[in-house]
Amino acid sequence: MATREIHAITSAAGLTAQQVRISGFKSAPRIQDSALSAIEKKVLLWLAERTPAWVNSDHLTLIGFLGQVMAGVSYVIARSHRSGLVLASVFLALNWFGDSLDGTLARFRNKQRPRYGFYVDHIIDTFAAFAMMGGLACSGYVHPYVALGMLIAFLMLSIEVYLTTYTIGKFQLSYWKFGPTEIRILLGIGNIVLLYRPRVHIFGLHQRLFDVGGVIAIAGMGIMLIVCTIRHTVQLYREERI
Q1: Distance CA 26, CA 169 (A)
Q2: pLDDT, tens digit, 9 for 90 and up, residues 80-116
Q3: What are the structural domains, with CATH classification, of the chain?
Q4: pTM for the full model?
Q5: Is residue 105 exposed (0-12), middle (13-18) or buried (19+ Cβ within 10 Å)?
């Protein structure tokens, strides 16, 4: 919106320029159709109803961030002591609690801050992903290049999601029945499996379990990225023909 238009509106309605910018912002619909989304929504609503009044969404966002960072630290610990793998699963659960409940709590209490919440939540996710993948790279259970590949694939897919949110108005939280919750559960199960079987035989080769899982994750995110990029490019081209 041009500065002249903002001044005209604010003069007529007695609003500040900041209020005009906020009122013109529209939250994109959240697309969440993962395998566990229906159950998860009920659990999160149950938790939101019982969350103490002194706990707010910012507290939960911080808990989620620290949970993922500590999961990365736990993977570093796992290099010298396998108990780090159990700790990583515990902190992944803490990450789910904070990262999933913060938005639900804001909506339940009708104290939403759409722009602030979207920005802070996802910029924190970026730092947290770096911390966890860094921990995995130092764990000895994943080749550093595989961990780096997962981080790059995650960031590239995140960019596609954010661009889609801005240009198309659709905030995609899950793909092909997989969302953040399902990924955390798979990673947590993988941590426990690592205690007993850190390596597997694939095509006659003795490979680290998380290297195999990491390559599959990279391929999956890569396919999602390519499919979504083509689909959204075609959609935008058809909507904005010259």
Answers
A1: 9
A2: 998 999 999 999 999 999 999 999 999 999 998 989 9
A3: 31-239 (1.20.120.1760)
A4: 0.83
A5: buried
